[in-house]
């Protein structure tokens, strides 16, 4: 399974970005799709996840600002990020659980300037 993430960039505080991640390769089904992030000097943390049945889960720090969604037909997961803050600056990674195995994307940089 290969994951290709895109959509990162530089944005001012209060702005918005939309991340996308496409899964390709051989698999029977994709279960949970997630976004993680790792800021400078920090451990990688879960930002949001969505199950195949569209149940979502968010880190407290992004609730009300970020929205995760997925397109099962296209094997894609998205992260709409609004009201961005400088503390959201990090490399964002998509993660999928396909056929009960976890896979990581290459990461996309999000930088929020104050």
Helix and strand arrangement:
Blueprint: E1 2-6, E2 9-12, E3 17-24, E4 30-38, E5 45-50, E6 56-58, E7 66-71, E8 76-81, E9 90-98, E10 101-104, E11 108-113
Parallel strand pairs: 2-11
Antiparallel strand pairs: 1-3, 3-8, 4-5, 4-9, 5-6, 7-8, 9-10, 9-11
Q: What would you say this structure looks like, in words?
A:
This protein is an all-beta fold and 114 residues long. The protein contains no helices and eleven strands. The strands form two sheets. Strands 2, 4, 5, 6, 9, 10 and 11 form a seven-stranded mixed sheet that branches. It has a four-stranded antiparallel sheet with strand order 1-3-8-7, with no helix packed on it. A hairpin with a 4-residue loop joins strand 7 (66-71) and strand 8. The radius of gyration is 13 Å and the shape is globular. The mean pLDDT is 96.
Most strands sheet = 7 strands, mixed
Number of helices: 0
SS-based structural class? mainly beta
Would you report the number of β strands?
Answer: 11
Poorly predicted regions are none
Quick check: average pLDDT? 96
Key descriptive features of the protein:
seven-stranded mixed sheet; 114 residues; mainly beta
Structure at a glance:
With 114 residues, the protein is mainly beta.
């Amino acid at each position: 399974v290969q994951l290709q993430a895109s959509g990162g960039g530089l944005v001012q505080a209060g702005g918005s970005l939309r991340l996308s991640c496409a899964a390709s390769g051989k698999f029977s089904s994709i279960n949970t799709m997630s976004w993680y992030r790792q800021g400078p000097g920090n451990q990688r943390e879960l930002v949001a996840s969505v199950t195949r049945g569209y149940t979502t889960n968010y880190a407290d720090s992004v609730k009300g600002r970020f929205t995760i969604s997925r397109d099962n037909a296209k094997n894609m997961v998205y992260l709409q990020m609004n009201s961005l803050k400088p503390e959201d600056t990090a490399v964002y990674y998509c993660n999928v659980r396909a056929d009960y195995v976890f896979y990581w994307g290459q990461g996309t940089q999000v930088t929020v300037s104050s």
